[in-house]
From TrEMBL:
Signal sequence residues: none
Classification via Gene3D superfamilies: ATP synthase (C/AC39) subunit, domain 3, V-type ATP synthase subunit C domain
Annotated keywords: Ion transport, Transport
Classification via InterPro entries: ATPase_csu/dsu_sf (IPR036079), ATPase_V0-cplx_csu/dsu (IPR002843), V-ATPase_V0D/AC39_subunit (IPR050873), V-type_ATPase_csu/dsu (IPR035067), V-type_ATPase_csu/dsu_dom_3 (IPR044911)
Pfam family of the protein (one): vATP-synt_AC39
Domain of life: Bacteria
Entry's family note: Belongs to the V-ATPase V0D/AC39 subunit family.
Organism of derivation: Caloramator proteoclasticus DSM 10124
Protein's recorded name: V/A-type H+-transporting ATPase subunit C
GO molecular function (one): proton-transporting ATPase activity, rotational mechanism
Length: 329
């Protein structure tokens, strides 16, 4: 692929990056005395109109949806954007499958940022017309329904659809023929498996459960997780010493052992992914700056949600700060 086809898109991204929230703005938000002041600080940002919606949560969801609509328009290889959009397909499919069993109206948590429009997905499930889904999702839905009917465990739905999501991402990566995209998806799979491994150990799950939830396709061999499942968690980072995950995982486990807060692992993992992508934004041609910007924008919205939720609930600045991921700009 001729990487120069991304030139115009990257030029547009450089302009959009100037409108992102910098560290100074984030700090100002953190130090805001309350929720209303935080909203006032954001009035002159690209989020001004969104947070003035009746619900700031709905506003941030709308900001995310609008962002992806824009990226689909400006990116010359839509599959690069679809790599990210697939997780919203997975989220929506999980929600609609659960809706079928729980008989609750979960429409409010659907996110119209996937590769399949929410309205189309709802029609697919309403009419049981699953042939209109990608094969990997269609097979996963049938499997998830069978598993739930057998075990009545909603977590099985999440596990099966998540596996299908990563499989679909690898399919898209293959379609693009861009090596960076494949490497990035493998990185996401590794991080997912590491997080899953640690959660499974701390929840005293059986090894059979781990076999069930680990995702194939990453660079870290699944045997690394299976063979070390009964070992002390403190030593696990040494098992991936030869990989790029050693440093962040070692630091994350040290924090977790002190605090027993699994959120510290999640934060370290997110910060690691941001650090990997930060260098990509300096590449002049190619998909790398596009991927880096999309990840950064998602992270920015996540940071805003954490801050605004904290302010809404009267949480102190230092406590909110501990929960924040790194930022891109």
């Amino acid at each position: 692929m001729d990487n120069t086809i991304f030139a115009q898109c990257i030029a547009r991204i450089k302009v959009l990056e100037t409108k992102m929230l910098d560290r100074a703005k984030i700090e100002t938000l953190l130090e805001a005395k309350d929720f209303n002041e935080a909203k006032r600080i954001l009035q002159d940002s690209v989020y001004g109109d969104y947070i003035n919606m009746p619900s700031y949560e709905d506003g941030l969801k709308k900001a995310l949806e609008d962002f992806y609509r824009e990226m689909v328009k400006i990116c010359p290889v839509v599959e690069v954007v679809d790599i990210f959009r697939t997780k919203y397909d997975a989220h929506n499919i999980k929600t609609l499958v659960k809706n079928r069993f729980l008989q609750k109206n979960l429409d409010s948590i659907l996110i119209d940022a996937g590769t399949i429009e929410v309205s189309k997905l709802k029609d697919i499930f309403k009419d049981d017309n699953l042939r209109d889904l990608y094969e990997v999702y269609r097979d996963a839905v049938f499997k998830a329904i069978d598993e739930y009917n057998s075990n009545k465990n909603p977590q099985d739905i999440d596990i099966i659809i998540d596996a299908a999501m990563f499989k679909r991402q690898l399919e898209i990566a293959k379609e693009t023929r861009i090596s960076f995209i494949k490497d990035y998806i493998q990185l996401l799979i590794d991080v997912y498996n590491i997080r899953t491994f640690i959660r499974a150990k701390e929840q005293n799950r059986e090894r059979d459960f781990l076999n069930k939830v680990l995702i194939k396709g990453g660079k870290v061999d699944l045997d690394v997780f299976i063979n070390n499942f009964i070992e002390d968690i403190e030593n696990f980072s040494n098992k991936v010493f030869h990989t790029e995950h050693f440093k962040w995982l070692k630091e994350g486990l040290e924090e977790y052992i002190k605090t027993k807060d699994l959120g510290r692992i999640e934060k370290m993992a997110d910060n690691y992914l941001i650090s990997v992508l930060k260098n990509s934004k300096f590449i002049s041609f190619g998909a790398e700056p596009v991927v880096a910007y999309i990840y950064a924008k998602e992270n920015e919205i996540k940071v805003l949600r954490i801050i605004l939720t904290g302010k809404k609930n009267g949480v102190g600045a230092d406590t909110i700060r501990e929960r924040l991921r790194d930022i891109y700009v």
